[in-house]
Structures are given as structure tokens and as C-alpha cells.
Amino acid sequence: MFGNPVRLLSATGLVLVLGLAAACGTTNAAGGGGGGGDAGPPKPGGTLRLGISSNPDCLDPQQVGTNAALNVGRQLVDSLTDQDPTNGKITPWLAEKWEVNADSTSFTFTLRKGATFSDGTPVDAAAVKGSFDGIKAIGPKAQLGNGYLAAYKGATVVDPSTVRLDFSAPSAQFLQASSTMSLGVLAPSAYRKSPEQRCQGDGLLGSGPFVFESFKSNQQIVITKRKGYAWGSPLWKHTGEAYLDRVEFRVVPEPGVRTGSLASGQLDAITDVQPVDEPQFAGNGFTEPVRANPGIVFNLHANTTRGVLTDVKVRQAVLKGVNRREVTDTVLTKNYKPASSILGSATPLHLDLSKELAYDPDGAKELLDEQGWAPGPDGIRVKDGTRLSARIVFSLVFNQNQSVLELVQQQLRKIGFDLRIEQRTTAETQQLTLAGDYDYIWYNTTRADADILRQLYSTKAGNRSKLAAGNPLDAALDKQAATVDEATRKPAVEEAQRVIIEQAYAVPVFELTQVWGLGPKTHDVAFEASSRMRLFDAWLAG
């Protein structure tokens, strides 16, 4: 329990500890899954003390959208399928096989035998139906699942081991969605509790390799090993039960305290290592697992019905005026990639459009000259008494957001464009996004499936660019949504990416990257396909 926690290092104590670590000389081991040295074969047992950067307001993976919460929830629930992080392929998990009809409106899953929830009840077709019906019933409270199940009509129990899920519109994306923790299967008894109770862990019963023990808000979440677990994903490194006996997710918002506590051995691992702290854990027994997030990269997403952004040539000039490499080299680190498309490079069906996103300030100025925008006395261009200016709304969901935008602002001033930066809370930013009250909106969205483009750009869904119905982008997005056949889907997804960049509906800047720090005794803390945490194979040496 966290009632008498080990005191974490203060920011002052951090300086000394990290200074010593740097003085020892480190080598970069980024991307690995465990501590340094040859620790021999994995050993069962022990408690992993894991520092996380924010408090999960809710633990139910069916309701949450933040990494802090999903990293906990992934350990508690299994999913119908799994997704290979190396190639994006969907593989069996609770379902040993499945069939999809021709227009991707019906998915039939055959469940593996022997899996049970932590209360002993079987993971059967009735339980799967109840779980998906339960997600649909809570509507927007299911922050991610509500979108995945937007067209969900219902489920049919064909027999105890077979369940069919039906949709009112083509939903090829559902196969990947079925691998996420957001659609992880909960026990029937979980739905006898309210969504609010499940958020606090009350009734949060899954079939996963760990079970919920306790939640003390703003302090700690504890999960423990599920005894007898034997139905893990074939993608995992071993079979049977998890190695760790216990995991303590300790909430440590201050980055300096978090990194100092890892350096001193008070924590075994941490999430969200900040760019300035990355060198401290690139050797000397420490490792830094690193993986770029799939999905939508951090970008300036244009409302094409607002002000100067109604002009495609202006939007294209802004796209050419951003130096992505300077952003990653100056504000971030080598662990962060400049955007090469609106989709991150870890996303299945990503198309490399680096040439189209090349820094070209002269080309940007030519476009603006053509449109009659002339430099004003302060360098910002003017046309018919109107300044070439747009507002971008952002929140600090990522620590470096303000620094990145300030650099982009400087870059755009060089072509005569005034980017006005406006920081809001996350809640305020979400409200402005829903209301369409923005010129540019700054955000990223994690998902290991290209259908995230449809969710945000289609006029039938999010339509963040405020496009008119029947546009060419809609056609491509509809086509990719209608089939799970990659040979048909791939050209449609690639076309959608091209249109977004050609029309400069968004200005991609950089790929968000997950950077963790692992202590010398910590091994095999792994990324799943959405760059979230998987602890089944994790173990502690010594």
C-alpha cells in the first residue's frame, strides 16, 4: 500500500544523483526492453515500482483515453484479438479465429476454451456480447470505444463459443479495434456496478494476467498477479502466469522527481522521460525503451472555413514554411521523428510523403506573392487591409508543446505569416474542437489503424477541417472503411493521406514518442501496438 511510501527524491536531490550518473559515462541503449547486463533467464516474483506522470481519474479501460489509465487497464483485460507491433497484423487472443463478411458489417469470432474472468466465470459468447453491449450503453463515457462502436447494432450468441457482432455501416476498422484495451472484455458481474464505480476499480473484473487490488487517487494504483492465468496472446514471450507478483503505479507528476527517483533506485521504472532527461538513462545499467506512437502525428489542423485558411494556397504556404527537422533537432531529441505524413510511421498503411513535406520557404513566399499577400512594415504580410494571421489553440498534453509551437511561430514569421498561439486547458481545447471554434487546432491522436483518418476528417464523422460533403477525401475514407482486405484498403488510405497533404488540411510537424526509463534490475517492459505498456513478460533481477 502507499500509506507509508518511500520518500521520492526532491528536484534538488535529483541534480546530484543525475550528475553522478552522467559522470559515470553512459551509452545509449534506447529501444531495449530491459536493464543492462546479462541477468540470466527471467525470474518470477517481486514488485515493480513504476512511476507514472499523471493520475488516472478512471481505471476502467473501456472508459478512458489517457496513457496513464490505459497502461493500467491493459494489464487487467484481455481482448478478442491482438496486434503485432512489428507489422500491424491482427492475431488471435481470446478469439482463436474469426470471419468477416464482404462489406465488413459482420464479424464472427470463435472463442478459445478455458479462459475465465478473475471471479471464475467463463469468457464465453454471452460474456462477450454483454461486454460490447455494455460499452455501447455508456456512450460518450467510452472515450475511445464509443468511436470504434459508432455503427455497432448488437451481438448474437451463435453458441457458447461463437459470437457475431453486427454493424449498420462498413466497419473494417473494428478488427483492429478488437485488439485494444478500450474494447477489452469485462466480466458480466462488472456491469452490475455503475460506470463510476468501475472507474475506481469497484467491480473492475477482467480475464487479464493481473487483477485490481487498490486505487488511492493521486498516489498509487496496485495490481497483482492473476493465479492460474494460461491464455495469453501468442505474441507474448512466455506462457502461463505473469512473472511479477505485484505492480505499484506510483503517481509522480513532477518530471525531475520522477527521474531522480529512478536514478536513486526508489523506482524501478518510469514513463514519460522528458527530452532534457533522456541522456541520464541511456546507459550505466539503465535502458530507455522508445517507440513512436501510431496514429495522427502532432499537427496544425486547419478549419478551412475560417479567415485566411479558406485559401488553399495560404494553407500550402504554411505547410511549406514549417521546418520539421529543426523542430526535432532543437526542441526535442533524436528519439523523435519529423512527420513524414499525417499518419505516424508506426501506423499500418503509412505513406512516406517526406518530399511533399520538405521545408521550402521560398516556395511558400511564391505562393503568397501569387495570392497578393505583400510584406507589411513588421514583416507580416497584408492583403486588402487584412493581416496574414491565424490562431492556433493547444493544451499542454505534452510538455514540449509550447516550445514546439513557439519555434513554428518563428519559422512562419520568416514567410510573413503570423501564428497566434493560444494555450487552453485540455477540457477547453476539447470544447473548442467540438464547437469548431478554431483556425488551427494542435493535437495528436494515437491509434494503430489508418481509420483514425476517417474518424477525424470524414464529413460523416469528426470533420475537423469543416469540409463539404461529397469531397474526394470522403470517397477515399469510405472506401478504406469498407474492407479488411489490405490490397483494396491500402490504395484508399494512401490516397487519403495524399489529399490531406496536397490540400494542406493539416500541417504535420512531428511524431509523438513514448520514452520510458528502466532501472538496472528491470527487464522486458514492452510496448504493444499502440505504444502502450505490456507487463506480462516484465521481470525483476536480483
Automatic annotation (TrEMBL):
Which keywords accompany this UniProt record? Signal
Gene3D superfamilies, sorted: Dipeptide-binding Protein, Domain 3, Periplasmic binding protein-like II
- Record's superkingdom? Bacteria
* Keyword Signal part of the UniProt annotation: yes
An example Gene Ontology biological process: peptide transport
**Does the keyword Signal belong to this entry?**
yes
Q: Name one GO cellular component term.
A: ATP-binding cassette (ABC) transporter complex
Q: Where is the signal peptide?
A: 1-29
GO terms for molecular function, please? Answer: peptide transmembrane transporter activity
**Which is an annotated Pfam family here?**
SBP_bac_5
Q: What is this protein called?
A: Peptide/nickel transport system substrate-binding protein
Organism name: Actinokineospora cianjurensis
